[in-house]
Write a structure and sequence with these properties.
Layout lengths: L12 H5 L22 E4 L2 E4 L3 H19 L3 H9 L16 H27 L2 E2 L12 E2 L12 H4 L16 H28 L3 H4 L6 H13 L14 H18 L1
Antiparallel strand pairs: 1-2, 1-4, 3-4
Helix pairs in contact: 4-6, 8-9
Length: 263
């Protein structure tokens, strides 16, 4: 019986010349900073500065306050406010207060969301444009904070990426989408786990009664509350034991619709 020995792999001259890469990000050797432009929104064929939304929102609020105060002078609206003051009568009060687990999970929710949002902004800064379609054809975006894609030359993702402040994005380095995605999806997983724990505690205690509507009266009470808030005559606050109709709908939509669909 002949002796069989394992043959060593053939020597690769190219592999011998390779060296281990540095796992550090050396900013001196990285892409130089590149500023973007003021965020713009496409309206038809024109680009409008997105900061115009701030005075527009203020004007709309002023108009809304005036309309709400005028509505409160109408007899039918006054009858609505009397019949539906804001909190549905059939909603049972929760007298146990806000337990420690609820406060802790709210803190963790905000903590994880801060990382998710900052890393999401960093990902967007690598291609600072938003589209309605999936093809992402240059020139079809509806939102951007980078100049228009030039024609007549090659334009890559490195050229398109912009630098954002370190306090706004994670890791705050231009064209660092790989690290940003790691932060984004890692903290998203922790955020989901935190949400599952929140659901478990919510329904194993009586705290779900705060945010789950149990009567159709929540809708007219929400309308009543909105009119009261907008007219700057705030409704009675009993949020320590019972949320008003508008608060209850807002929490229900956030917890059971917006949060799951965002995943």
């Amino acid at each position: 019986m002949s002796h069989i020995t394992s043959a060593s792999p053939p020597h690769d001259p190219l592999a011998a010349k390779l060296s281990a890469a540095d796992d550090r990000v050396l900013l001196a050797n990285w892409l130089p900073p590149q500023a973007g432009v003021v965020p713009k929104v496409r309206l038809g064929k024109h680009w409008v500065n997105a900061l115009w939304a701030l005075p527009l929102i203020f004007v709309l609020l002023v108009i809304g306050v005036a309309i709400a105060q005028a509505l409160r002078q109408l007899p039918d609206v006054q009858a609505l406010l009397v019949r539906y003051p804001g909190i549905p009568v059939s909603v049972p009060p929760v007298t146990t207060g806000f337990p420690g687990w609820l406060r802790l999970l709210h803190f963790l929710n905000l903590f994880f969301m801060a990382f998710i949002i900052r890393s999401g902004v960093q990902i967007l800064a690598d291609h600072p444009r938003l589209y309605w379609k999936r093809d992402c054809t240059p020139g079809t975006e509806w939102f951007r904070f980078q100049k228009a894609v030039p024609t007549g030359r090659i334009w890559t993702s490195k050229d398109d990426s912009v630098t954002i402040p370190g306090w706004l994005g994670i890791p705050g380095i231009r064209h660092s989408i790989g690290l940003a995605r790691w932060w984004h999806f890692s903290t998203t997983l922790l955020w989901i786990i935190n949400g599952v724990v929140y659901y478990a505690f919510l329904f194993s205690t009586g705290q779900w009664l705060r945010i789950v509507p149990t009567t159709w009266d929540v809708f007219p009470n929400a309308v009543s509350t909105a009119v009261q808030y907008l007219s700057l005559t705030f409704p009675v606050d009993e949020s320590w034991t019972r949320y008003n109709g508008l608060q209850q709908l807002a929490y229900f939509i956030t917890v059971f619709i917006a949060a799951p669909t965002s995943i």
